[in-house]
Specification:
Blueprint (H helix, E strand, L loop, with lengths): L4 H4 L5 E12 L9 E11 L3 E10 L2 H4 L9 E13 L6 H6 L3 E14 L2
Length: 117
């Protein structure tokens, strides 16, 4: 898949481009804005080297300023690659077996979010 997020390093911010797929919603137990944004085919700019198949982002003010996105819209943003824990971390062993905790790489704190023309 080209250059993976873990090879980019977490010290510097980089420019990325992704294709908007759809809006989503977080579990209602999370306090705050529950809306999310799904982007796919995340590429490093320049070079168009794909670093992730898809990533979910919180619907922050930066994304809200873009207005209503339509599937297929291209979005560029700056972000930093970070390691994050994913999966179930509670006491229920059945849930833990179905969705075990694991470390994943994601893009954090997107800024300078723009819709490509």
């Amino acid at each position: 898949m080209g250059r993976k997020l873990n090879n980019i390093g977490s010290k510097q911010r980089h420019r990325f481009r992704g294709e908007f797929v759809r809006y989503g919603e977080r579990d209602a137990s999370w306090a705050g804005n529950n809306v999310t944004v799904l982007l796919r085919n995340i590429c490093l700019v320049p070079g168009e080297e794909q670093v992730a198949h898809h990533l979910w982002f919180n619907w922050t003010t930066g994304f809200q300023r873009l207005g209503n996105l339509i599937a297929g819209d291209l979005v560029e943003f700056d972000a930093r690659a970070i390691k994050s824990e994913e999966g179930y971390r509670g006491d229920d062993l059945l849930h833990q077996m179905e969705n075990p905790p694991r470390m994943v790489w994601k893009l954090s704190h997107p800024t300078k979010i723009e819709k490509c023309k």
